[in-house]
Amino acid sequence: MRFNLDNYETVEARLAKFWEEYPNGQVFTSIHHYDDNRVVFKAEVYKDIADPRPVATGFAEEVRDASPVNRTSHVENAETSSIGRALANWRYASKTQPRPSRQEMEKVQRMTEAPRNDADTVSKFRAACAKAGLDAQDVAREAQVDLNNLNDWDMPKLRDAFKKMQAKPAEPTKAESFVENVQKAFPTATEETPKVKDPSAPATSSQIGKLRAMLLANGIGERPKQTDAVSDIINRPISKLDMLTKGEADAAIKTLEARANRES
Question: What is the pTM of this model?
Answer without folding.
Answer: 0.42
